[in-house]
Design goal:
Blueprint: E1 9-14, H1 25-45, E2 51-53, H2 56-65, H3 67-79, E3 82-84, H4 99-117, E4 123-126, H5 136-142, E5 147-150, E6 164-168, E7 174-179, H6 194-206, E8 210-214, H7 225-238, E9 243-245, H8 248-258, E10 264-265, H9 281-308, H10 314-326, H11 330-333, H12 339-369, E11 397-403, E12 409-415, E13 421-424, E14 429-430, E15 432-441, E16 445-455, E17 459-466, E18 481-483, E19 486-488, E20 492-496, E21 503-508, E22 513-514, E23 522-527, E24 544-547, E25 549-557, E26 562-571, E27 574-583, E28 589-597, E29 602-609, E30 613-621, E31 624-628, E32 635-636, E33 640-646, E34 652-657, E35 660-665, E36 674-681, E37 686-690, E38 693-700, E39 721-733, H13 741-749, E40 753-756, E41 767-768, E42 772-773, E43 778-785, E44 791-798, E45 804-810, E46 815-821, E47 826-832, E48 840-842
Length: 851
């Protein structure tokens, strides 16, 4: 790039509006109205002034509470002087929401703008979000936006060759992107015109136009009269044609026309405020729960509508998604708002979760009630045999197990009653184990039953439970054993260290090798006194000061299906309880955690050293994955992180045969095998990897909204008290692509759902499969009613980074089609109600055919 004295500075009049931060949403609501009024006043006072504003949620608030002002805004949008950017519901955190949440931001945000103003945003706009995941270009393109504007990470946090660049994602999508070189607000360091003149100089040096933002921000405000008077002086002095009142839309349109030579970047935009990946555990856990629950509710509401005519609850589900999206605002999802704000967050998540629960229950109940479970011997319903179930004689009582995922799931499910036996719908017996219930109801009623289910994709299956009748099941090949501090099945043997409770060994019986390079599940206490709430200026949290210890180990469950050891350890006043379970199905180790955290200015991490050489770390990001350096830096992730590498080559390997230990030489020239281990979770978003050791960030306890403020005795600390979550260790042969990690992580987060039933006739069978996807690397994440009410939407994405041919069937609609997925490609299919019409590919907004 060469100097160009004909370049321009585009002055962007904006008001950065945090609806929640150091204030609650009600104050943000009022500030948005006042700021919009101020912007309209400026438009009346200054004929050349142009105002830019994002976030559909803000416009919705004004529409519902100040309709006259909304009409005025509409006129200015039509005029072209009020410019809508950022076609999302809010300016979200751009690391922690799921891929489908980003799709919904585009769907609901852009459709709102189209409905109310007849336009959609072409520029993605996130000037204050704390980082931007690597799949953003594809998500932006699918949301109808070809350009992106952001500020963080700033130059000291990520080196970019140029502030204007082409940004590519893994699938090949590309958006023209601009990083602000200075704040979105009025901050200046060297005089009233220094910021604008600096950008004028940068434009000349780089050979292309620059954007320069102005306007009071954070608590709204926007451009002031003084701003615009000063700008008029600067333009008069330095050239009105070189310094123009503009918008991001105009800037990018000019850059497309000018077509300057700019670099191409294929990377994530990180890393700012690394503490925000883990601050405020509750809101992060509820975000994950709500995302999955709403998707499950949509799927079974769709099937209940198609098969039985249950009205599809579109309005209720849309409201729930609006709550979830609002809570993904970066200062909420990042955990850096005031304590009172998180009371509101809890209410918004609660409403979304309740809506999800009600709609999901209505759909499952509608379907289960329509399944033909009648038996010839039954004349009428009666509870003569049992007060809890409707079983008559020894005919069995039906339960319906639903699977919201797009592949068949085999899993352990707990039935809330002690049973003698269980069969599937064909009468084949299912292995059963008695386990402790959560209740203590009298002397005997404190037991539940554990069974293994195999449930079809987007479907359900009926199982028959028997209170007294014994039906012997075949012996299990992979029966689990527990002995003192050891868990063992056909795949692995796990040993715990007695006095610490750490995992001392995970021995892979398939390869006769140890999988850990040291002790695992080690609770490490980190000092973070030097950190503010955001973790500003930090790259790592690795100042270890202690470890939980003084462990007590108990056998919690002992059975052929699953055995569990409870490890309870302590540090100061904090108590960590890990229920470490090994099932018969695989070598995966599932750990249910209850933590009572009482520390301040400290962090807890769980460490897992993986025994591999030349380690590589890959983790899930929204609708994709990314490989990152194993340098110990704190990074964001979604439901899984993996470390894989070469199996260590040693002079001798310990080999076990028939219970005896012997040594076996390994040929020097033998090809080293690859293996790895993944860490899956259902509530956490932060970790680091140093070498081959994964450390998952469990909790941190900074002060609420502390930006290196004055700390006194009245400050309040975050995440005090009890929280619960689950993680799974998943060993695998080969690299991460051989581990079925996307499937397993979703199985942890979206377990099968159980519904008790009784005897009745019905039109539905006892086994129902809702979807068939032929390629394992392609998963269907969403199945919902089309927004226009004229068909159905199925969204899929390719998970392994490889071009894939796939056949997809929806048996209930008698529809099937084939598609080719590129590497990490997201595809949305519209299946019209009119079966004479072809299935079409659409983008997230469900409007435009993808070419």
């Amino acid at each position: 790039m060469t100097g160009n004295e004909n370049t321009k500075v585009h002055l962007i009049g904006n008001a950065h509006l945090d609806p929640v931060w150091l204030w609650q949403w009600q104050e943000g609501y009022a500030e948005i109205k006042a700021t919009f009024r101020s912007a309209l006043d400026r438009l009346n006072e200054f004929p050349e002034f142009v105002f830019t504003c994002a976030c559909a949620a803000y416009y919705q608030w004004v529409e519902e509470n100040a309709p006259e002002m909304f009409a005025e805004i509409h006129d200015r949008v039509t005029e072209g002087r009020w410019v809508i950017t950022g076609g999302w519901w809010i300016q979200p955190d751009c690391n922690l929401p799921s891929g489908e949440s980003f799709a919904r931001h585009g769907l609901y945000g852009q459709r709102y703008f189209l409905e109310k103003f007849g336009i959609m945003a072409s520029v993605g706009y996130n000037v204050d979000s704390f980082g931007h995941h690597g799949m953003m270009p594809q998500i932006l393109k699918q949301s109808g936006m070809d350009y992106y504007l952001f500020m963080r990470p700033e130059a000291h946090e990520k080196n970019l060759e140029n502030d204007l660049f082409w940004w590519d994602s893994e699938d090949g999508s590309r958006v023209m992107t601009f990083r602000l070189s200075d704040s979105y607000a009025n901050f200046t360091k060297h005089g009233k015109d220094a910021k604008i003149l600096k950008h004028k100089q940068l434009a000349e040096e780089k050979g292309h136009d620059y954007m320069s933002f102005y306007g009071v921000g954070n608590h709204g405000g926007g451009p002031t009269v003084a701003n615009l008077q000063l700008i008029d002086e600067i333009r008069e002095e330095h050239g009105r044609d070189r310094i123009i009142l503009s918008s991001p839309n105009q800037f990018f349109a000019d850059m497309v026309e000018a077509n300057p030579t700019i670099p191409v970047v294929k990377d994530e935009m990180q890393r700012h405020a690394v503490g925000c990946y883990s601050a405020h555990s509750e809101s992060k856990a509820n975000n994950r729960r709500a995302e999955h629950r709403l998707l499950s509710a949509e799927k079974f509401s769709s099937f209940a509508h198609m098969t039985l005519g249950l009205p599809y609850p579109k309005a209720a589900l849309n409201l729930a998604w609006e709550n979830v999206m609002f809570n993904q605002f970066h200062d909420i999802m990042g955990g850096c708002s005031i304590k009172e704000a998180f009371d509101d967050v809890r209410e918004f998540h609660g409403e979304a979760l309740a809506i999800g629960a009600r709609t999901l229950n209505a759909a499952m109940q509608k379907m289960s009630w329509a399944i033909d479970t009648m038996k010839p011997e039954v004349k009428s319903l009666s509870k003569d045999k049992d007060w809890q179930t409707w079983e008559q004689d020894d005919l069995g009582a039906p339960i319906v197990v639903f699977n919201p995922l797009s592949w068949e799931v085999e899993a352990l499910v707990k039935v809330n009653k002690k049973l003698k036996s269980v069969t599937d719908e064909t009468g084949a017996p299912v292995a059963i184990q008695t386990v402790r219930a959560s209740r203590t109801n009298g002397k005997e009623d404190k037991w539940d039953s554990l069974i293994t289910v195999r449930v079809p994709a987007f479907g359900y299956r009926v199982y028959w439970t028997y209170r007294d009748k014994e039906i012997a099941a075949e012996a299990l090949a992979g029966e689990v054993r527990v002995d003192g501090n050891t868990l063992e099945n056909a795949f692995v043997r796990v040993e715990l260290e007695a006095h610490t409770g750490y995992i001392q060994s995970i021995f892979d019986k398939q390869t006769n090798s140890e999988l850990l390079n040291g002790k695992g599940a080690v609770p490490i206490v980190i000092d973070e006194f030097h950190s503010d709430t955001w973790g500003h200026g930090l790259k790592q949290y690795r100042d270890e000061i202690a470890r939980f210890s003084d462990a007590r180990i108990q056998v919690l469950e002992e059975g052929s299906l699953r055995s569990t050891l409870r490890v309870t350890s302590r540090y100061n006043g904090s108590v960590l309880r890990q229920d470490i379970s090994l099932g018969h199905l695989s070598g995966d180790l599932q750990v249910r955690v209850q933590l009572d955290w009482r520390e301040k200015h400290k962090m807890l991490k769980l460490a897992f050293p993986i025994r591999v050489e030349q380690p590589e770390s890959v983790s899930e990001i929204p609708y994709g994955y990314i490989e990152r350096a194993t340098d110990g830096n704190e990074v964001p992730g979604q439901q899984w992180v993996d470390v894989s590498g070469k199996v260590p080559r040693e002079a001798e390997e310990i080999k076990e045969a028939d219970g005896a230990v012997e040594a076996s030489g390994v040929a020097d020239d033998a090809e080293q095998q690859v293996r790895g281990m993944a860490l899956l979770n259902d509530a956490k978003y932060a970790y680091d990897v140093l070498g081959s050791e994964i450390r998952m960030t469990v909790v941190r306890s900074p002060i609420f909204a502390d930006h290196f403020g004055e700390r006194d005795e009245q400050v309040e600390f975050m995440d005090q008290g009890v929280q619960e979550f689950t993680y799974t260790l998943t060993p695998h042969a080969g690299d991460w692509k051989q581990g079925r990690l996307v499937q397993k992580a979703n199985e942890l987060n979206v377990p099968p759902l159980l519904m008790w039933e009784t005897y009745h006739e019905g039109q539905l069978p006892q086994y129902f499969q809702g979807i068939e996807v032929s390629a394992e690397s392609v998963v269907a994440t969403a199945f919902k009613r089309a927004e226009d009410g004229d068909g159905w939407i199925v969204r899929c994405y390719e998970t392994l980074g490889q071009e894939t041919e796939v056949a997809i069937k929806l048996p209930v609609l008698k529809r099937e089609w084939k598609a080719t997925f590129g590497k990490c490609e997201i595809k949305t299919f519209w299946i019209p109600d009119d079966s004479s019409l072809d299935i079409a590919e659409v983008n997230f907004i469900e409007l435009h055919q993808v070419v």
